[in-house]
């Protein structure tokens, strides 16, 4: 017979019963009995009234005393007839400090100071009342006066336990057998009309529903938000970067990157097959770019090769957001010049072999400052201000080569957590061969720097493999559990 039916059968013979008694009668766990009661109570077959009771139980120390004797009795029995030094007693007897104090106050022992001080027995025999009391409590007999019980509680020999149970009585729908109630109203019930003769389980409209799964920000988005806030704090304007497909002209030629450069090979760049080419360009600007590449200009001898429009027209997935910077600087040159600070954080695409540190699709963080008479000192000062907000306060710079910046510098920072110098970005001053064909004034210089978004995120969240951060192998639990990003500003 099911437990809930056994409860109903038992309740049929009496008016009221405590769930604790039922647990004892059925030899079941009390919590299991309570669960069965709740199920029949929902059917209004029983009514339950919560009740509380208290009882005294022995603590772990109390159980030890009940078995081996009180601390004072144990100490009394450990004293030989001719006495023992107090220091020896305190060192060899368990709980000697409490036992000595209690035995002295009860008059069981004394200190003989006639010679060398010795602890001696004062009485021939003792009765261990504490042990007797605790054994009675252990058997369920509690006749102790309140002052004695409280004393044992202070000595941590007894503890008061609150017991919660339910007093059951018959409900309005009481029966000894449980009728199965319908839980769903089906289309068949409506078509046949059988619902009129069926009994339905009452719905609990106060019950909480299943909590819906909420969306969670990916670690990359959390770090991106922090980067964006830093740029905005420094007075930068965000560039529009929603155009993933660029022509080779804006991605390479406008940046004074030669058409025979290895980066323009299909092994490094994703070229688009449809539409394969772009045809709309600012033609005057395009002619100036063609000239500086092929024959030079603005004090430069150029690359001395035959520049081809067909190569510049090829469409591709942008390999860097510097293509967007080139568009913004060209637009800036078409009006009266005012100093500007731009930034962008968005996706770029490289034809890379996927491994633990490389992806074919990743994010580039770029900052660009255009002003008159800017130089290397301005670049280093701006970088120091930017990276200090990221929590990097020790920077080093290494000379590097970029086709569109001169001088160029790789940026290294000392990472306190890793205990070593790590490369965190690239930077430089844009070349005149890139800026002057746009129409910018000759005394205007542009400083720029860039870094990936994935690398700082991996460092921040302690990830060693970039595929644990993005891609099909990402642990969604990691995305859900990781805290909000807090860069050490």
From TrEMBL:
It is found in: Cytoplasm. The keyword Electron transport does not apply. One of its GO terms (biological process) is phenylalanyl-tRNA aminoacylation. It comes from Euphydryas editha (Edith's checkerspot). Keywords: Aminoacyl-tRNA synthetase, ATP-binding, Cytoplasm, Ligase, Magnesium, Metal-binding, Nucleotide-binding, Protein biosynthesis. This is phenylalanine--tRNA ligase. GO terms for cellular component: cytosol; phenylalanine-tRNA ligase complex. It is an enzyme of class 6 (ligase). Residues 222-472 form the Aminoacyl-transfer RNA synthetases class-II family profile domain. Tetramer of two alpha and two beta subunits.
């Amino acid at each position: 017979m099911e437990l809930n039916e056994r409860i109903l059968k038992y309740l049929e013979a009496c008016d009221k019963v405590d769930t604790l008694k039922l647990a004892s009668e059925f030899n079941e766990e009390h919590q299991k009995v309570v669960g069965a009661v709740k199920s029949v109570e929902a059917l209004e077959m029983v009514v339950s009234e919560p009740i509380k009771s208290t009882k005294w139980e022995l603590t772990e120390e109390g159980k030890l005393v009940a078995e081996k004797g009180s601390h004072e009795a144990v100490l009394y029995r450990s004293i030989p007839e001719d006495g023992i030094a107090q220091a020896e007693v305190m060192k060899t007897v368990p709980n000697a400090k409490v036992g000595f104090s209690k035995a002295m106050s009860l008059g069981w022992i004394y200190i003989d100071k006639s010679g060398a001080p010795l602890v001696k027995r004062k009485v021939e025999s003792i009765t261990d009342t504490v042990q007797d009391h605790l054994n009675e409590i252990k058997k369920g007999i509690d006749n102790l006066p309140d002052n004695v019980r409280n004393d044992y509680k202070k000595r941590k020999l007894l503890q008061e336990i609150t017991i919660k149970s339910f007093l059951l009585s018959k409900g309005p729908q009481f029966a000894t057998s449980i009728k199965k109630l319908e839980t769903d109203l089906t289309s068949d019930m409506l078509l046949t009309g059988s619902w009129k003769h069926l009994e339905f389980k009452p719905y609990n409209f106060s019950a909480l529903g299943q909590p819906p799964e909420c969306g969670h920000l990916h670690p990359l988005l959390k770090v991106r938000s922090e980067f964006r806030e830093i740029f905005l704090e420094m007075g930068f304007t965000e560039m529009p970067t929603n155009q993933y497909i660029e022509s080779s002209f804006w991605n390479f030629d406008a940046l004074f990157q030669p058409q025979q450069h290895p980066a323009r090979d299909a092994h490094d760049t994703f070229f688009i097959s449809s539409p394969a080419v772009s045809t709309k360009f600012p033609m005057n600007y395009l002619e100036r770019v063609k000239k500086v590449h092929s024959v030079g200009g603005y004090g430069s001898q150029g690359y001395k090769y035959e520049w081809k429009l067909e190569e510049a027209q090829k469409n591709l997935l942008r390999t860097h957001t510097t293509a967007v910077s080139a568009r913004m600087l060209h637009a800036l040159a078409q009006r009266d010049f005012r100093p500007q600070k731009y930034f962008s954080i968005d996706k770029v695409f490289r034809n890379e072999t996927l491994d633990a540190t490389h992806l074919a699709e990743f994010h580039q963080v770029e900052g660009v400052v255009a002003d008159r008479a800017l130089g290397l000192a301005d670049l280093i000062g701006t970088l120091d201000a930017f990276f200090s907000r990221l929590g990097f306060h020790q920077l080093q710079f290494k000379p590097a080569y970029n086709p569109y910046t001169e001088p160029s510098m790789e940026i290294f920072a000392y990472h306190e957590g890793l205990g070593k110098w790590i490369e965190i970005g690239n930077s430089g001053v844009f070349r005149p061969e890139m800026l002057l064909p746009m129409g910018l004034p000759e005394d205007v210089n542009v400083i720029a720097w860039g870094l990936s978004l994935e690398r700082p995120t991996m460092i921040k969240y302690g990830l060693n493999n970039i595929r644990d951060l993005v891609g099909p192998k990402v642990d969604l639990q990691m995305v859900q559990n990781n805290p909000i990003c807090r860069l050490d500003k």
